[in-house]
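Ops channel
N.P.: pipeline sanity check, posting one input/output pair.
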């Protein structure tokens, strides 16, 4: 009885109190839902935009920062401690103590650590000098410069060949070659192996006692 009365009371009175209440409530709910949907869409749009942005950043990072270039290794200049040259046509020779200034240019976003190596100097294809290169590091985007002592000797060059060279001009064409093996460190954790070759040509001017016309590949 009470339940039936209650039911009757409800059914009977609700429309009377507010005939449009339900419809208004429904309208409000629909509007709210629409609002929420819009907000969610906006949120998705932000997330998507952020994902695209982040992907772009990662790509740029991968292309620029993680890209590893072979460092450039070259002869920069030289000074001389002793410079003995004989220009006799039939028996020319040289015996020179040179301090070769070398450079390792590391453009990478991480230091380059290289192993022990050697640098060799040639006249034509005859080796006329050699020096040890101690292992070391070239810092993040910088050029490491150091000097190695080299004895240049024409002991293996036939005296008449060199004599012929000197009869034409007062300089000795030389080439220098070397290979460095090492690793570029990226983001302080990854190591990427990278080796670099030196291939330089130069002229040793025996009248000015200077190294000139230095060109490195
Ligand atoms: C050639 O010159 C060197 C020193 O430069 C000398 O020791 C050698 O005896 C010379 N040889 C000849 C065949 O003249
Ligand atoms: C070698 O040095 C001399 C003296 O400085 C200079 O006159 C000459 O031009 C130089 N040789 C070359 C090939 O540049």
């Amino acid at each position: 009885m009470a339940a039936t009365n209650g039911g009757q009371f409800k059914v009977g009175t609700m429309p009377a109190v507010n005939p449009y209440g339900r419809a208004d409530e429904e309208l409000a709910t629909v509007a709210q839902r629409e609002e929420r949907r819009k907000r969610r869409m906006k949120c998705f749009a932000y997330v998507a935009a952020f994902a695209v942005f982040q992907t772009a950043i990662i790509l740029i990072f991968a292309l620029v920062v993680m890209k590893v270039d072979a460092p450039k290794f070259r002869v920069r200049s030289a000074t001389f401690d002793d410079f003995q040259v004989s220009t006799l046509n039939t028996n020319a020779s040289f015996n020179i103590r040179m301090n070769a200034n070398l450079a390792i240019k590391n453009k990478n976003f991480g230091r380059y650590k290289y192993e022990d190596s050697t640098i060799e100097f040639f006249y034509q294809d005859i080796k006329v000098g050699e020096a040890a290169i101690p292992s070391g590091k070239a810092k993040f985007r910088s050029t490491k410069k150091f000097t190695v002592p080299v004895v240049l000797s024409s002991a293996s060059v036939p005296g008449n060949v060199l004599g012929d060279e000197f009869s034409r001009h007062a300089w000795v064409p030389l080439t220098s070659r070397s290979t460095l093996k090492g690793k570029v460190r990226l983001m302080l954790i990854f190591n990427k192996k990278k080796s670099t070759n030196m291939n330089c040509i130069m002229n040793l001017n025996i009248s000015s006692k200077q190294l000139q016309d230095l060109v490195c590949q």
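N.P.: looks fine end to end. The chain has two domains: 20-65, 72-216.
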